[in-house]
Amino acid sequence: MDNAPYFYRTILNHLKEGVYFVDANRVITFWNEGAEKITGYKESDVLHKPCHWNLLTHTDVNGVNLCQGRCPVAKTLVDGIVREEALFIQHKEGYRIPVEARILPMRNMSRQIVGAVQIFSDLTPNSEHGKKMKALATLAYFDLVTGLPNRRYIENRIGVMLTEYTKNLSPFGLLLINVVGFKTLNDKYGPQVGDQVLRSVARNIAAGVGPDDIVSRWDGTRFLVISPNTKKTLLLLLAEKLRVITLRAANLEGSEDVSLKVSMSGTINRLDDSAVSLQQRLANLMQQSESHDGTLTLDED
Q1: Fold for domain 151-298?
Q2: 257 burial via Cβ count (<10 Å: 0-12, 13-18, 19+)
Q3: Of 106, 144, 165, 177, whose CB is crowded by the most CB atoms within 10 A?
């Protein structure tokens, strides 16, 4: 029938399972709505891009990346064998999703392999095992005191954004915020009040950023903010706003005898950056900030 492609696309888009096609070079040529819902990636994010560009980052149960050497799709493209595997794929927000994947070869009229299709189901809602894995994944990526994403989550997110930057050249900024003097407050009033201060700081920072910004608890008394699609002038404005907000939240009523301060550092990513170089630059700038009584230290580049 003349409208066969539209007919088949409509059927595939009504499936709960994720479905995507790749050509012989593992470039994604089709991405259904089920794949969008499971992974968070829209069709426009992935279409015409190689699937091994760390988009989904297929890993096994031990966290080993399969995309570079043990990719089941690549194997099926070579030998034509149908494969079924339990894998993890990476959601656009950085956390891992347990899936059951089935990979089939696509052949032309001459029976030559010209591509492959992967059909994958989210195991999370469909089994007790999946529910437990989802619960553990949530705990692994969130800080229990503040409810914010933790360092593990944000490091994954930075890695994703660095990969995206090589394609779209849309810079992002990082702000590191440290509550100085917290130990004195914690020792004087106890950990319960200390946790209350941290939660107050977390809520205020989260309320003070833009809708696309990400706030996380980096470690101890430090919070990290990722601000996408930004530049130095905008990052400076955001930093000053958050400095005031954080300082106000950190000094609780009734604890005037314990004065808390805020140190901040910030940077915009560069083309040659890695997650390690970004973190090291932020740490160095934070040392400069703390040596200048908490003044915001922003990378000059």
Answers
A1: Alpha-Beta Plaits (3.30.70)
A2: exposed
A3: 177
